[in-house]
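Researcher: Let's try something more involved. This one mixes different molecule types, so please make sure each is placed in the same coordinate frame as the others.
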Amino acid sequence: MASPLSFPEEVLEHIFSYLTLPSDLNSASLVCKSWYSADRYSRRKAFIGNCYSLSPQGLVSRFPNLRSVEIKGKPHFADFNLVPEGWGGYFFPWVRTMSVAYPWLEEIRLKRMVVSDEALELIGRSFPNFRVLVLAFCDGFSTDGLAAIAANCRHLRELDLRESEVEDSSGHWISRFPDSFTSLVSLNISCIASEVNFPALERLVSRCPNLRSLHLNRAVPIEHLPNLLRRAPQLVDFGTGTCSSEVHPDIYSNLVRAFAGCRGLRNLCGFWDVIPAYLPAVYSVCFGLTTLNLSYSTIPSPDLANLINQCPNLQRLWVLDYIEDSGLEAVASTCKDLQELRVFPSAPFIPEANVQLTEQGLVHVSLGCKKLQSVLYFCRQFSNAALVTIAQNRPNLTRFRLCIIEPHTPDYLTREPLDMGFGAIVQHCRDLRRLSLSGLLTDRVFEYIGTYAKKLEMLSVAFAGHTDAGLHHILSGCDRLRKLEIRDSPFGDRALLTNAAKLETMRSLWMSSCSVSFGACKLLSRMMPRLNVEVIDENDDPCSRPDNCMVEKLYIYRSLAGPRFDMPGFVWTVNEENSTMRSSSALPS
Amino acid sequence: MGSYDKDLNLEATELRLGLPGTDQPEPTTNIIIHSNNKRSIHQTKEEDQEGASKVAASKAQIVGWPPIRSFRKNSVQPKKDRAGTEADVSGIYVKVSMDGAPYLRKIDLNSYKGYDQLLVAIQSMFRITIGRYSEREGYSGSEHAPTYEDKDGDWMLVGDVPWEMFTTTCKRLRIMKGSEARGLGCGV
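Model: All components are placed in one shared frame. Result:
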């Protein structure tokens, strides 16, 4: 019966192991039943962009032999306090199911999820081959959970807690790594507020010869750095602690020698509270640096420029707006390999500018840095002319996020909306995948986006547009759109309902402080059974108000799992009988 | 556009920001969101009075804008600017738990001017009453007492220290209930 062209399943699985992209594997699995089966059993990695898009049971049935999972939880706007506490994104149901189904699990990467100590303890007990734990922007756990990981994961290579919120009970969790533990490659504890047991950390660093990446937390004072660096000269990626104590000549010269010993250093970050006089201590490694994150350092412009002038091979630069236009001019002339620039605001809540950072800085960089692909830029003024210049100079931009701090700010030269400027961005930058808008914008900018931004995958809109036509342009024009998040913009029912089918092709849609009515939410939910339409309202039961009342916040996402069971009291969804239901249940741990 | 227009007469029920008869939304008044309750346009009578005075008092703060993550906001202490005035009026978000409640809330201490406003907000958020504060007796007259964890990790009764000291030392809040609460303030 077997045709000469069919392979035994083991051979197919082996061939599939050479396919790395999930999209390729997905395509292969659709060819025929035996390919589907081969892929199913040989799939080793899964990426779940929305933890509510399928159930844990669904995952383990579909792919019984995973070694690596990556899961994302809360919507992006949770980063800015727009998602109330208790909304969801719990990891425990996943680890409970996986602890049984995947005894050989090696890697867990989570973003914006609620992770309990119990979940961390379960990881420690269930996966003898566990190697990588990345918790990005997560919360819900304490140093007790970390102690369980340290004590039990004998082969751990990576522990990365980037910007998670950790309840600090004790700094002694780090001493729970046994003396026999030597496999660490990467450790990022920069988010931990309290002091970690430093001698234990030093001993850990000493006995892990493969350690390549180490990010300390702010509580580690600069005096400790020289000894630490001397024990790990092989570091490629290093984050300092605080650098604020008075410059002492002995410490300074120790630091110079210690950094000089780290010949392989390519990434530097940290520098909390750094006194500029310390900066020359790192000059010896600057030539080799490809990533420099100074976004926690309040260093003034001339000192920043001096440092950056030492770094001609920089590819990524994150910095505060203290760099000013003059500093960015220096970047433009020195950092010819720059691919990513992020400029954060030092004082975002005061009305006037405290630094000389305008659109000119970014224009200079767009002119001088021909490889620039990714921009995040906070400033207080912009012009259409500048946007057009940037677009024409850098058609290779793939990510462009501009945040003009005051909402509705027009072109400061012409007082017009910035529609034309952003229009130029999408027109010239044909590979643009991510875009964030700001400033005064009418529906016209959305017409441009819908017409030109054909590769756009993620769009963030705030305080923009006039009518539903704006939203309609986005939803009907952006073919590759996956994530759309909108706040404080007058988009409403008509655009949403007209483009209901589009929503099933996207991962998620967030709308807050817009003009969507409760009735439209119910209708959309009835029309699209494979979408979860969740209304967030912290004030009242939306059922107690007329259907034409606007909802506070709306989160819509496609799901194979149906409405979720862990919604808190302020989240409403529509059940089968087409009346609204609120699911308030006990929180899973 | 689709055929839904005719069936549903969406035009008639269409809601927009702004006055009827205009296409443009009113820029500032409708957008301002009072961060203590994270509301946008709908406000109850109580908040209206609070809201009006707040708008008048300071530049209105918009929740989550500009879009900067808390870790970053808390990490960078801005310098005094050249004019010598304090630069930072960002939010101080602390978690609030109540014994017996299934989930926590978060509030911005900076959006209240003092203990009175804070307690009104907490009572409204959790639908409880907290008794009157007195230095001798703590909170008498109700089942609940508000406490907070300070920088040293100790649990303190809300109201004992000056408001400014409270906002800078408070790490999180907990509303105690029942006998535990009644024990506070009596001969402590």
